[in-house]
Design a protein that fits this description.
With 255 residues, the protein is mainly α. It contains nine helices and no strands. Helix 8 crosses helix 9. It is globular.
Amino acid sequence: MNQFITNIMENVTFVLEFVALVAVLVVIAVAAEKLIARKNGVEGKILTTRKTAMIGMFSAIAGVLMTIEFPVPFAPSFYGIDASELPVLICGFAFGPVAGVLTEFLKIVIKLFFKPTSTAFVGELANFCVGCALILPATVIYQIKKKKLTAIIACVTGTLIMTVFGTLFNAGYLLPTFAVIYGMPLDAIIGMGTALNANVTNVFTFVAFCVAPLNLLKGAVVSVLTFVLYKPLSPILKASYDGASAGRSKKTKQI
């Protein structure tokens, strides 16, 4: 706890910018959820006590999973893959894009209690932004019409958006920022990629051969596991969803 507070105080400006970004994405999610609710003839609050409790539960699971990373053979060791988006996507599918964005943010907070930041919150910001690039579009699409085909389209679209955004975000912001944080030339970071793949010669090829495959793999794994786990969990999720959406006037088939 003391380390967590110290990290915040040392990077208070960046933390406030982070929180402002979260607020913007929550506003976007709220607007999307209200439009979808109006289209589907749904009435009720976006957040209820039961839904908030489910967000807390899934955030806790995601926060723990975020501390467990696995290396991949095609990217340098500071890149890893984790399953933290899995509970976030399940929560977003069940309860909407607002729940997805809030869960994505709260998982970062919970993770920081278990594993303090080593990048002045830059890595956590990157994880949040790239995660939302998957979660937000996927949950918005699925909420429009809850059917199996829509879920597939949602996951594919979210994975592609996450891959494109994550690639550009790494090239334009994350890699240069990490070079400054760790006090090493950007060429040295690119050299780590070259050691794994001779085709990596600059920032563009680095993100193309190291970052893009990582995001594609993560999106695919999370999507497949969501399809495997969502159905068994649906009775619990549906009970909470029905309690939060008693005003629903139209029924749509869920996966």
